[in-house]
Write a structure and sequence with these properties.
The structure holds 3 protein chains of 3 kinds. Chain A is an alpha+beta fold. Chain A is built from 15 helices and 16 strands. Chain A has 3 domains: 4-295, no CATH class; 302-414, no CATH class; 423-482, Arc Repressor Mutant, subunit A. Chain A starts with a strand and ends with a helix. Chain B has an 11-stranded mixed β-sheet, with helices on both faces. Chain C has helices at residues 11-17, 24-41, 76-80, and strands spanning 65-66, 86-87, 90-94. Chain C is of the alpha+beta class. Chain C is flat, with a radius of gyration of 23 Å. Classes of the chains: A alpha+beta, B alpha/beta, C alpha+beta. Chain A binds chain B through residues 40, 43-52, 79, 81, 83, 85, 88-91, 145, 147, 149, 272, 274, 276-278, 281-284, and chain B through 81-83, 89, 91, 96, 99, 101-103, 105, 200-205, 207-209, 235-239, 337-338, 340-341, 343-347, 349-351, 361, 365, 385, 388-390, 393, 397. Strand 2 (52-53) of chain A pairs parallel with strand 1 of chain C, so a sheet runs across the interface.
Chain lengths: 484, 533, 115
Amino acid sequence: MTTWEPVIGLEVHAELATRTKLFCACPTEFGAEPNTLVCPRCLGMPGTLPVLNKQALEFAIRAGLAFDCQIAEHIVFERKNYFYPDLSKGYQISQLSQAVATGGQVNIVTDDGNEKQIHITQIQLEEEAGKSIHGGATIREATFTLEDFNRCGIPLIEIISEPEMHSVEEAKAYLEKLKTVLLYIGVSDCKMEEGSLRCDVNISLREAGSDRLGRRAEIKNLNSFRAVVNVLEYEIQRQTELLNSGGTVARETRTWDEGRGESFSMRSKEEAHDYRFFPEPDLAPVEPGQAWIAEIKATLPELPDIKRRRYVEEYGLPLYDAELISGNREMADFFDKTLQYYKDPKAISNWLMGEVSRLNNQAETGFDKLRFSPQQLGELLAMIDNGQISTKIAKTVLEEMFASGTAPASIVEARGLMQISDQGALETMINSLVDANPGPAEDYRNGRDKALGFFVGQIMKETKGRANPVLVTDLLKEAILGKK
Amino acid sequence: MRPNEMSARQIARVVNRGEMSPTEIVGDFLKKIAETEPEYHAYITVTQEDALRQAAEVADRLVKGGEKLPLAGVPVAVKDNICTKGVQTTCGSKILAGFVPPYDATVVAKLREAGAIIIGKTNMDEFAMGSSTENSGYFTSRNPYDPARVPGGSSGGSAVAVRCGSAAVGLGTETGGSVRQPAAFCGLVGLKPTYGRVSRYGVAAFASSLDQVGTFGRDIADCALLSSVISGYDANDSTALDAPVPLYHELLSGTENGAGTGVGAGTGTVVGAGVDGIRGLRVGVPKEYFQTGVEPEVAAAVRHCLDILSAMGAIVEETTMPHTEYALPVYYVIAPAEASSNLARYDGVRYGWRSGNSPNVMEMYCNTRDEGFGPEVKRRIMIGTYALSSGYYEAYYLRAMKVRRLIRDDFDAAFKRYDVLVTPTTTAPAFKIGELSEDLLAMYRSDICTATANLAGIPALSMPCKFVKVGGGRQYLPVSVQLMANVLREDLLFRVGYALQEELALPGLKQPYTHLQPQGDLYTQLEGRGDRR
Amino acid sequence: MGADGRSQVDIGHLATLARLNLKPEECAKFQEQIEDILAYVDKLSQLNVDGVEPMTTALPMINVFRDDTPHETLSRDEAMRNAPDKEGAFFKVPRIIQDGEAPDDGEGGDSNASK
C-alpha cells in the first residue's frame, strides 16, 4: 500500500496590538458592548474613506523583519471583493502582489531534535471583518444571524507559509514558534481565546518521496492550536482513506466542527470564488524607505533563535533548557537579568524551569508579573552556595519571595532559617541522640547504612531542617563509629 | 432685487453687513423653490426647517462673533450623494431611500463653517451614473431653458436649482463630466477641480480614482468663491492634496465684486492678475476634441472664444493629443470596475433598502440589490464585475490603467507647451428627455470631451459661450466652452474664464432663468441685441 | 475574447458575483448591451501598452498615514439608526446557509457558531 505524506501550509492571522483600527481611529479593545466601537467607516457607510494607521504598518514591517523577510520597497493595498454580512464594505482591504513582506522563514526544532526552516511566502497587512453570531446551535441550524461590527477594521497580519510541513508535529511547532516570535516583538497579544490569533490550514497528501502535490483541502478559521492539531489528524485520516479506496480529494474549502470532531465541505457546488482584486484607489501606496526600516530593525529585541543559540553556546545550557527558556520572552528576560547577579546559568535555568514555573502555574501568573527580582533570585542561589541555607530551605524561602517579594536574606533572618553549622551545638545534639538510640547506632556500625538516615532525620526534625546536612552526616559518622 | 436673484457674493455681502438676515434670504429661496419645483424638479429633499435653523445659527454667529463669513447666508444646493448629517442622502437611488447619515461630508462641514445654508439635496442620476438625471431612482429634472429637455447629469438637480435661482450656488460631483455637462446644458459655470483638491470624505463613491466634488455658479466669481471654500487638505481623505488654497474669487480683479464678500484675505496665496493676464497666455486647441461629432455651431462658438483670447493677446495654437480617442473606452472600463466594488456595500445589512422575507442572506442580497438598483447601475456593476473578473482583469482593467497613463502623458506633454487647453464641453446643447435613453453608447458618448480631465486628474472648467437657436423657433439653448489646465491651476481657469465671460457678455446668465419667466425672455434679449457676433 | 472582438459573457455568473437577481428578460437585454459596450471598449486592444506603468491613482501619491490615536465612536443609536432589522444590540440578517446547502461564502467571515 502507498505511504502518504502530508503536505501542510498554514495561513496565520494575527491581530495587531494597535490602539486603533487599521483604517479608522476606533478603539480596538476586546469585549466592549456590541456595535459601540464603530464609526461610519466601520459600518461601510456611503462616502467613508480609509486612512492608514502608521503603527499598524510599522508592526507589520516589524514582523517581517523578525522573520527575516524582505520588506517591499513599494507596498500596495488591494481590494478583495466578496459578500458576507460581517464585511461592511463588500470588500476587504488586503494585499496581494505587493504585500509588506515576502520571503523569510520560521525555524522549528523537529521531533528528532533537528532544526528545520519553514519558509514564509509573504506577510500581508489587512483588516478584520466583524463578528457574526448565528442564531442557532450551529451555523447550519441557525435561522438568523446577528452582526457586531466592533471588530470590523482591526488590523491583522496574515502570515502565509510555504507548504513545507510534513507532520502534525511540525505544524504545531511552527505555530508555537510563530506565536513566540510575535509575542517577543510585541506586535500581537496572540490571545487565541479572544480570536487574536487564528489559522487557516491547507493540507494535501502525496506519495512519500514524490514531489508532486496532491489536491488540497482548506480549513478556515481555526482558533486554537488544539483545533489545528485535531483538523490535521482528522484530514490526514480522511484523505488517506479516500486515496486508499481509489477516490480523489476535492479541492475545496471545509469547515471544522470542533464539537463533532469532523470537517465538512462548505460548498456543495463548485462555485469558484472570484475575489476580483484590484489596487485600492482610496489609499496611497507606501514606500517605507531604508531609513525607517533600519530604525524599526534597531528596536527589535534579541529573537528566540539567537537567544537559544547563545544559551547553548555561551552558557552551555542543554538544548532542552535553552529552547524552553528562549521560547518565553518574559522567562528569558528574567534569566538574562538573573545572570547579572549570579554566575551559574544551569542553576538559574533549573530554578526557573522548576520551582518558579511551578509557582507561576499554581498562581496562574507569568514571569512578567513576579514580585521578586532577578537580583533577589541571584541572592537566594548564592545563599545556598555559601551554605547559609539548604536547597530545601531555599524552596521555602522562594515561596515567600513569590508571595511577598521580600528579599531572601530578610526572610531567612526573620524566620530564623539560617543553616546551623555550629559544630559544637550540633555535636551536643548528636551525642545525646546517639546515646538515646543504641539500637540504630549498632545497626549502622554493623553496616546498615540506612540507619544513618534515621539519625539525620531526627536532627533535621529537631533543627527544623536548618542543620547543615553535610556537617550533620560527618558528625554523626564520627559520633557513632568513634564510640566503640 | 429678490435675494434669489443675487449672486452668492452679493448675498454674503448684504448678510455680513447686516443689511439682510440669513432668515430673510432663506425665506425667499424657499419661496422660489415652491415656485419652481413643480416644473423643474431639482430637489429630492428640501431642508425647509433645517435651513431656517441654519439661518438662525448663522445670524447668531454674525452677531455674537462679529465675524465675516465668506458664504454668510448663502443657500447652497447639495447633490444628494454628499452626506449631510441628519438629512436624508439617497444618491438618487431607491436603495438609499430614507438613509440618514450620522455625519457630514467634509465639503458640507466646510460650507457650514463658511456660513452657507444647505437648502436642499438635489436630484441626480442614480449613484451619479448618467448624463441626464433620467437614471434617477426618483424623477427626471427639467432643463430651465426647455422643460422638454434634460438638464444634463449626473449633477442635473444642482444645475437646475442654480439656474432657476432656487439656490445661489450648488455642489455637484464629477466622475466623467457630471458637473461640466449639466453646467453646459444649463448655462452655468461649472468646475471640476484637480483630483484631491477637494475632499471626497462623505461623498458616496462612484469611481474612487475619478470622483471629485465640483461647483456650480451663475458666473465665474460665484463658482470661484464656492470652490475656495470647499477646497483644501482633509486628514479624512488619503487622496486629498496638502496644498494651499488660493482665494480664487479674489484673483478676479476688475469685477464689480471680485472680492466682494467683505471677507479679508484668508489662507490662500493671491496671484494677482486680471483681464490683462491673458496677454502671452499660451492656449492649446487639441484637434481631437473637434473630431468627436461636435455640432458645427458648438465648434464655431468655441472658435469664437479662441478669437477673443487671441485678440486679447493670447497665443493660440492647434495641437494634438493622440490618445484622446481612447479616453471613453478607458473610462467605461475603470469607472464601472471601481463602481462594482464601491457599490457592494449596498447590501441591505446595515442601512438602506432591504428586500423583505428572504429565507437566507444570499437571496436577501440578490433581491435587495435587484429591487434597489435601477437598470443603468446594474449594467455598470455587471460590466465592472466582468472587467475585474478572473481571466479578464489584464485585458480590461489593467490595460485600461495603462492607457490611462498614456492619456495622462498626452496632458503632461501639452502642459509643457500650453497654459490652458480649450475645447467644447459637449458636442451639442441639451438633448430631449428620452432622446438618448434607448441608445446606450450615444448616451455614454456625451462624456467624450469631459472624461479626459477626470482620467488625467487635472482641473477643468465649463462656461457658457453662446446661445444657439434650436428648432428654428424662438428657442435658444446655451452651449459651452471647456478650459483645462495643469494640476492645481484652477486659478488660471478662473482668470481666463473671467476674461472670456466679461468679453462675451452673454445676456441673462447672471440672473436666475426659467422658461416661464416673462422678464427672463431670452429670445427678446438675444434677438434684441442682434447677432452682432 | 472572441476573434471578432466580441466577448462571450456569462451573465448568470456575473449576476451571482454581483449579487443581482436578474429576471430572464433583463439577462437577455444585458447580455446584448454589455457585449456592445465590451466591443466598444475593445478599442483598447489596438494599442501597444508594453512597458507602460499602470496608472492606479489619479495623481502620484505616497505614504499617507495617520497616528494611532482613538477618535470618538458613534453611539449605538447613531450606528444602528438606519438598520433595516436589528435585535438588541445587533444588526440582524437572515440565516447564512441556503436550504440544503453548505455555507456559501466564508472568507474572513466569522463562522463560529454561538454556543
